[in-house]
Amino acid sequence: MPRVATLAPLRLRRSGLLACSLLACSLLACSLLGCDGPAPGDAGVRSDGGPLVAPPDVAWAETCAAGECELVTFAREACGPTQLALPSGCEPLDEPCASAPPAGAIVVDGMAPPGGDGTPGAPWRTVAEAVSAAGEGDTVWIAPGTYTEAVELAQGVRLEGACAERTILTTDVPSNSRAVVTVLGADPTLARLTIGPSVRPGIGLGDGGAVTLDRVRIRGVTVAGVIAQGASRVDGRRVAVEDIASVGGQYGHAIYAEGGAVVALEQVAIARAEDSAILALEEGSRVALTDATVRDTRSAVGGEGAEAATAQLDATVELTRVAVDDVAGRGLFAIAGGTIVARDVRVRGVLTTSDDGVGYAVHAQDRGVIDAERLVVTGAHGISLVAQAATLHVRDAWVADSMPGPNPASPGVGLVLRERANVTLERALLERQRLVGIGVDEESTLTLTDVAVRDVRESASDGQLGHGVETYATLVATRLEIVRARGAGLAVAGPLGSATVDDLRVSAIGSEAGGRFGFGVAVQEGATAQITRAQIEDTRSAAVVIDGDGTRLDLIDAAIARTRSEESNGGGGRGLTVQRGAHATALRVEIADSEGFGAIAIGAVLEADELTVRGVAPPACAATGCPTLTAGLAAQSGAAVVARGVTVESPGTCGLQVFEAELDVTRGRVSGASVGACVLVDGFDLGRVTADVVYEDNEIAVDAPVGPPAAPVAALE
Questions:
Q1: What's the CA gap between 237 and 681, in Å, rounded?
Q2: To bridge 264 with a disulfide, which of 5, 23, 47, 288 should be the other Cys (CB 3.0-4.6 Å)?
Q3: Is the pTM here over 0.85, yes or no?
């Protein structure tokens, strides 16, 4: 049996014990007590007997995948020095320079002679002089030029430049604690200005400070573009924050809020910050951005990666219509109780970090919470979505093209849960992942509603895996589709592995690169699963396999079709396989067009009600001399099979086969076989397979013994 993925550094572990499901126990009781089987139409089947499998509703994501949804059209082109890079494209940061100050303004002109009084005819030479002379509600108008001075604002004045492009405030005096513009009092306004470059932060607010920004560019500063601390507040629109440098390998934030501060900005462009571009710390702190871009965030020298947005220590980040591009480390990061609320957000091209070689596009960790709606994640070098001892809720999502980083062993996974994470994913399409589409581990819980996983490829390093969805913990899914995966479509494994799935479609599951496996559904290593209404088609080796002591599967209303031989050895393509101590119940299951066996139990327990097997062909290896025996329903090597309401048509060699095992069939019909029932058990009571079974159009009705096989078929490894 293939083992599910180990995602370094997110290793999937196994532990614990699960009891049998309610349905499995009830069907077992029925088999012991002889109660009547269910009516064929009770669970909602089509008139032809096939199950009603509702497809997932992923229309929004399908539109994105076709390049037609609004999020995908977010601009990525480089904008000019006077432009603002917004999700809608490049737009002017400011209007053309004003030639004269507004009426009543206090005027500053760095080229004016000393001794001015702030009038248009005698401007102040420095901003500090003008601010000292200004009162609450005054406007200080600054003529074009570069003003090398730190500014402190203690009153509610409007500090307005002639235009952002040509009115520059800076200082060459280094400081990590004082900014180019420090706000000490109530609600001034900074308008039409560029702040920096400088060897200190751009704008700083202490406890109780407040400021409004209007058409402001902050560039080339250190520590942070905007620092808001304590009970302070920053509001504004049309803001650019660029080229923020770290100090000693720390800081380098575009926007930093802590201690209950609030920053709320619209039309924001952030580029080339070192460390977290947006960082909110401590309860009550909040950063809210609307119509924003975050680009080219890089790790500081010697740092461990950077983030586009981080909420930490119970702080909150709110992102509405935000595009994140080319970030090294993480896109969105909620940790230590932090919360990120994302609406209409695209994260594209998250690169690997220097510490572990994995990039994380959306990452909730250590009690962090991320709530996202209309989310697009593409081109992550590592893992697109990950929850680690945290909570992640995503609705309407398209996740595509996760890929390994420079380290060939790194994964390219769509979604990973570990360490008791809790994740809900609703209306989502995950496509073109590497190694695993979705992986669940370590006592986590994943709830999927209307989710499609498509085109999962094998590992780039060793050619293994390529599973669609794998879980070692709890999975609850409604309307799940897995198409074009490798190794296994849905894998449930380990004593804590548990899956409850309603409306499952699994299709086109190929072998791993070495030619092995290709299972539609694999339940193994003590896991339990209940699958209701399933369509499983075009798989390899086995469409459904249940393996190992303590492993249980209840399969209800399922159609299995076109199971082909394993590529590596041409061995049979089994529709349903129960083996090595496992226990399965099959209720209203149809298996068509298998190679080798329709349904087989090997040293395991199978209870089947209303089982239909149609068309079993020899395995591919028959052309090169392997045994050609085929069977519709087989019990081998100590298996115990109880089947009620069985129909077997055109099974090849044997309709029913029992080899050193137990088989009881009631309400059966077998037709079109070479031998209706092949019995290879000394002293077997043939009435167990003949008393309530109709044999018609078979060459031989019952043969005991029959020639081959001289030995039972092997369990799948």
A1: 83
A2: 288
A3: yes
